[in-house]
Amino acid sequence: MSHPLIAIAGPTATGKSDLALCLARALGGEVVNYDAMQVYRGLDIGTAKVDAGIRREIPHHLLDVAGVGEFFSAGRYQELARAALEGIRERGRFPILAGGTGFYLRALRRGLFEGPERDEAVRDRFRRIAARRGWGTLHWILGRHDPESAARIMPNDAPRIARALEVLILTGTPLSRHFGASERPLAGFTWRVYGLNLPRPELYARIDRRVERMLAAGLVDEVRGLLAAGCSPEAKGLEAIGYRQVAAFLRGETGYLGMVESIQRETRRYAKRQLTWFRKEPDVVWIDGAGDDPAVQQRIFSDLRAFFNL
Questions:
Q1: For the whole model, what pTM was predicted?
Q2: pLDDT digits 0-9 by tens, 252-266
Q3: Same structural domain for residues 93 and 197?
Q4: Is the same domain home to 159 and 89?
Q5: Residue among 128, 155, 130, 126 nearest 244 (CA)
Q6: Do 226 and 298 sit in the same domain of this protein?
């Protein structure tokens, strides 16, 4: 029998976590993260990870499952998340997906394209180009041939840029077009996906305030502690927005105000990319408003009761 599953989508700072907690408390649910940076241990403040007290109250899955220097793939995410969903279903609980990495959500729903094996000759060619012109150039090339993949991959994410270009070269087809051919869509669940939508000025104001709160909560000290503990500045986790800028500030490459403005600007750009991605996802029920708004929560409850006959 199919089991109900709720997913909450939308740009950063729209209150997805608040909505997930509200639904979990009301429905007897457990939350499954699909934010690519919240999987890393030690990245707490800058990823807006829920605190330990909330996690004791409401079970959360796919948080803190990788070391900050580890490369964590979408395939690994899919494997762990599907196992988590099965466990929640077996316990008779309500699974609630919350996060902002649209590619992880798509991988979970549709499955992943396995793709050709890694080709070291092709990878060497990419590394030579990157050494001369930087990974940003390769990201630009990817954007010309596979804009959908480029939209979800950060310009400095060398492993994912290389893989997307490798698949393009070896198969002649953009990576983004392979996913529709997946043969392993998630089975046994009935999805209801809600997208949170805010007017651009309101969204940007919320992003700016959120960055200010993170810095006031100790983001600089969090990054300083990671580096002092031996974490490499090149670690995968420190590529995240916020961590990257703070690390540059600690190296003396920028001033405090420049750091703040850079985090806010890059987060706004990321929010635009997220919205573009989620707008292309099928069957999303778009809700105008933030997830921490009681009126929005009530509208979603009403829809859930009707959709799942609760």
A1: 0.84
A2: 999 999 999 999 999
A3: yes
A4: no
A5: 155
A6: yes
